[in-house]
Amino acid sequence: MSEILLEIKNLKKHFIVDGGKALKAVDGVSFKLKKGETLGLVGESGCGKTTCGRTVLGLYDLTDGEIFFKGQKINDIKGEERKKLRKQMQIIFQDPYASLNPRMTVGDIIAEGLDIFGMSKGQERVKEIQRLLKLVGLNREHASRFPHEFSGGQRQRIGIARALAINPEFIVCDEPISALDVSIQAQVVNLLIRLQKELGLTYLFIAHDLSMVKHISDKVGVMYLGKLVEIGDSKKLFYEPKHPYTKALMSAIPIADPHYEATKKGIKLEGEIPSPINPPSGCRFRTRCSVVQEICIAEEPELKEISPDYLCACHFVK
Ligand SMILES: Nc1ncnc2c1ncn2[C@@H]1O[C@H](COP(=O)(O)OP(=O)(O)O)[C@@H](O)[C@H]1O
Ligand code: SF4
Ligand SMILES: [Mg+2]
After folding, report:
1. Phi, psi (rounded to 5 degrees) for 49
2. How far is the CA of 48 from the centre of ligand 1 (A)?
3. Ligand 1, closest atom to CA 45?
4. Which CATH architecture describes the domain 4-312?
5. Residue of 12, 13, 14, 15 to mutate, ligand 1, most atoms within 8 A of C-beta
6. N or C: which end of the chain has fewer CB within 10 A?
7. Tens digit of pLDDT for each residue in 182-232?
8. Residue ranges of domains in the chain
């Protein structure tokens, strides 16, 4: 039941940019994810969520740190072993418009993984495509059509079917609903939840706001400038956010929940996000924090456990 599927320890991904400077997109992130669980990863655009997800999947070489999948260290896995691993880990992209090849039929898009891994051919492949279409709430007739014939929500269903084709255990959902109409977002999230239950999937669910994350996540991690500032049980985090950044982030979105509305009063998120090439000294959030003190400039707060399995990085949260 409580098998740890994925563990990352002090993961860093620095991009070398103009003049040889290091852009610290992910700068020391650690978390554990149990099988069947969802970790929601939130934070403003540019804080390193996508880079974190892609590095975990091996799409980027990491700069430092360790990644364990089913207890095995997978940082340096290459060749055949990497191919096997790729079958177990998939990604669903943010933009269902851009991520589907417009010249391929839906059937061929969905079967891409099956073809790459030589998993099924001929009639068996056709059946598999039909099974996958049904699984995500589409029809078998859809297989011969092209992506432009579908709505945004349907395209994301195609993207989900494509990811599921090779029976992965772990899926990075990279803002899978951000590009969709609000009315469609809940449908796609509910589909992901149903599939998770049916197939025992584990998700890293990336989002730049908190509204849908609340619905799908067991745990939530809040990132700011490449680091986690708060991580723990989703309900606790939503009902009693501890970190000033989490509080500010929450105040930016409307959620129909009286308790929640009460906790968010009076906190505003102002100012620009600093550059990850030159992050502020001490606490990275200090340039925008409404309760900043002298110590925040000099000393970086550690991400420490403030209650069981609940961590926060602020000098004034104990
Ligand atoms: N391939 C890349 N090369 C250089 N910088 C990158 C690259 N990908 C992302 N970045 C930078 O890394 C930071 C984190 O980006 P990203 O992970 O996309 O954030 P998020 O998904 O939270 O919006 C940003 O400052 C972004 O500009
Ligand atoms: S450490 Fe200081 S600047 Fe950082 S979040 Fe806490 S109070 Fe704000
Ligand atoms: Mg992103």
Report:
1. -65, -55
2. 6
3. 23
4. 3-Layer(aba) Sandwich (3.40)
5. 15
6. N
7. 889 999 999 999 999 999 999 999 997 688 898 899 999 999 999 999 999
8. 4-312
